[in-house]
Amino acid sequence: MISKIYTPSKELSPFIQSFRIIQTHHDLVNRVLPNSNFAIVFTLKGQISYLDNKNVIHLPSVIISGLRKSVRNINYQKNSKSIIVLFTEMGISSFLKDPLYELFQQSVSLDHFINKDKIHRVEENLNSAKSDLESIKMIEDFLLSILYRKHTDLLIQKSISEICAAKGNIKIRELSQKLFISIDAFEKRFRKTVGSTPKQFSSLIRLKSITQTEKPESIIDLALENGFYDQAHFNKEFKIFTGLTPTEFYTSENIW
């Protein structure tokens, strides 16, 4: 698999974290851990599918994926090529007015939200692109054409910073009090901007942080240090997130 990462233009950098191009020369199954960002995927060549137990779910040529709490096994067909637009945690809300939280755990065709003709024109342009940079420029032009809000919700931005700084180990009610907003209003505003509840987002950040640590001396200590008071609960949440038990994860040679 060939993977290239490109930074967005200055105009889109507040909303887009990166563009990633993935190209394969043979059939490949890639295990992808959950992330705290929305993504839009343009398939330029070949077929990309989700492997769900024994089911193969073929994906549309342009999809949008919400936040997830569970691992995904993605099958890239031989000679496939795709461009992934990875948004910042709040970035997607500047392009879509629809309820983002309804996309939690979901990946659907982008034409559920954007006019089909507009998407079709982008795909036609991408088919004629002479280089990766030209393809990214075409996608950026498309994104700029649907950008409807440029201001940032500073309160939600602050809450995300607090959650990330605490590596997800934070009490949401105490956070809302610190931000001088009621818990109900905070959760509603967070769901609208991020696409998940604050609790779901904190859980993603916590498990993401755990999987990025070195192999621990003790799984029990790892669970306790990260706010889990029941190892069985920790094992369950960890396996949903990675597809493996903590012991399997830290003893296998995984590349994530």
Question: What does this protein structure show overall?
Answer:
The protein is an alpha+beta fold. The chain contains 9 helices and 10 strands. The protein has helices at 116-127, 132-146, 154-165, 172-178, 183-194, 198-211, 219-225, 231-242, 246-251; strands at residues 2-6, 16-23, 28-32, 39-45, 48-52, 55-58, 62-65, 72-76, 81-87, 107-109. Strands 1-2-9-4-7-10 form a 6-stranded antiparallel beta sheet, covered by helices on one side. A 4-stranded antiparallel beta sheet has the order 3-8-5-6, with no helix packed on it. A hairpin with a 2-residue loop joins strand 5 (48-52) and strand 6 (55-58). The longest helix is centred in the middle third of the chain and has 15 residues, at 132-146. The mean pLDDT is 93.
Short descriptors:
alpha+beta; globular; 38% helix; 4-stranded antiparallel β-sheet; 6-stranded antiparallel β-sheet
Task: Draw up the topology in text.
Blueprint: E1 2-6, E2 16-23, E3 28-32, E4 39-45, E5 48-52, E6 55-58, E7 62-65, E8 72-76, E9 81-87, E10 107-109, H1 116-127, H2 132-146, H3 154-165, H4 172-178, H5 183-194, H6 198-211, H7 219-225, H8 231-242, H9 246-251
Antiparallel strand pairs: 1-2, 2-9, 3-8, 4-7, 4-9, 5-6, 5-8, 7-10
Helix pairs in contact: 1-2, 6-8
